[in-house]
Specification:
With about 280 residues, this protein is an alpha+beta fold. The chain folds into two domains: about 120 residues, Aminotransferase class 4, branched-chain amino acid transferase, N-terminal domain (D-amino Acid Aminotransferase, Chain A, domain 1); about 150 residues, D-amino Acid Aminotransferase, Chain A, domain 2 (Alpha-Beta Barrel), CATH 3.20.10.10. The protein is built from six helices and 15 strands. Strands 7, 8, 9, 10, 11, 12, 13, 14 and 15 form a nine-stranded mixed β-sheet that branches. Strands 2-1-6-5-3-4 form a six-stranded antiparallel β-sheet. Strand 11, helix 5 and strand 12 form a beta-alpha-beta unit.
């Protein structure tokens, strides 16, 4: 059976659905999206993802369908594709709709797409590299989860070519920023650190939940700008993202970190997994 998707109000076959070749999301990347992991047929942390989608859409000047409509569409897609009983990946994408062949916006309504598939199974640890090009913390789309992912595609391909699974960006000041689809935490001198949002990283939903878990678990954590070179000498480090959850970093630029996963990573990974089992919309 071909996957079924929900587009702008109705469930359709992925082979039969039609998106205009003039859609602004296709021609210039004018769109925003959210990716969620679903447990037991329900998107985890849907409210937090919808709130971030609202913020991204506002920056891009896009209108968003109501929360309840998109939640119902998400549940419908999961059921229609027999994904309710497995760990599934769900994505909501909103684009500018048909527009002129340029940067100017059109007058058509937005295209809204909900699609789902089985989720990626990651290895227990991840190898990362630090790329030479930077995130622009002062850019118009800083902190926006837009469909303009060209930089991420290039960086991730470089990482894969070197045998790593994630690429880490500095910002323009040479500070540790984020991965292509993840936030970064590291332990330095016994303190857990993560880059502040003003440094250009995305306000990750998993990142925010981990910060809350640190408070519950009595783990001292600081949002602090540090040089990207600090990652190589970290006592331990991990990535956070919707699909990775809390994912230990094994090596940076080919250099192995200490005992992996470290005690802080292990503790937070366990706490996060318990959260996913006890509260689907924290």
């Amino acid at each position: 059976m071909k996957p079924l998707v929900w587009m702008s109000g109705s469930l359709q076959s992925s082979e039969e659905m039609r998106i205009s070749p003039f859609d602004h999301g296709f021609t210039v990347g004018n769109g925003v999206f959210e990716t969620m992991i679903c447990y037991a047929g329900h998107p985890f942390a849907f409210s937090k993802h919808y709130e971030r989608l609202e913020r991204s859409a506002a920056v891009m000047g896009l209108s968003l369908r109501p929360r309840n409509e998109l939640l119902e569409a998400s549940l419908e897609v999961l059921r229609a594709n027999d994904l309710s009983a497995c760990r599934a990946r769900l994505r909501i994408t909103v684009t500018g709709g048909p527009a002129p062949l340029g940067s100017e916006r059109g007058n058509s309504s937005e295209t809204t797409l909900v699609a789902a598939s089985t989720a990626t199974n990651w290895n227990d640890t991840e190898d990362v590299i630090v790329v030479s090009y930077s995130r622009n913390e002062n850019g118009a789309l800083s902190g926006v989860k837009s469909t303009s992912y060209g930089e991420n595609v290039v960086a991730l391909e470089e990482a894969r070519s070197l045998g790593a699974g994630e690429a880490i960006f500095p910002n323009t000041r040479g500070e540790l920023c984020e991965g292509t689809g993840s936030n970064v935490f590291l332990v330095s001198e016994g303190i857990l650190l993560t880059p502040p949002l003003k440094g250009g990283c995305l306000a990750g939903v998993t990142r925010a939940l981990v910060l809350e878990l640190c408070e519950r678990e009595g783990i001292v954590v600081r949002e602090k700008a540090v040089p990207v070179t600090s990652l190589v000498g970290a006592e331990e480090a991990f990535l956070t993202s919707t699909t990775r959850e809390v994912h230990a970093i094994r090596s940076v630029n080919g250099q192995l970190l200490g005992g992996v996963p470290g005690p802080v990573t292990t503790r937070l990974r366990s706490a996060f997994r318990i959260l996913t089992e006890t509260d689907l919309d924290p």
